[in-house]
Description:
Layout: E1 6-12, E2 18-26, H1 31-35, H2 39-42, H3 44-47, E3 54-55, E4 66-67
Parallel strand pairs: 3-4
Antiparallel strand pairs: 1-2
Amino acid sequence: MCTPLILMQLITSPSLKIWDYVLGVTGSTHDAEAFKKSYTYLNHEMLFPHGQWLWADSTYLLLDWCIPPYKEPDAS
């Protein structure tokens, strides 16, 4: 029997201070989906008032309080 890999997702500052974490998501869970289970995501109104925001990985959605880096579209 194969058991799924259980991972942890961290939300850190540039100085690597851990602000939040999510435990128990499987390895096949996309980072953006795991993020939706975090305290940060669920309580963003309280954590990021008055135009404050969070830099995020490029896999996350652009939200008023969650800013992923701009990715230039591939030239076709």
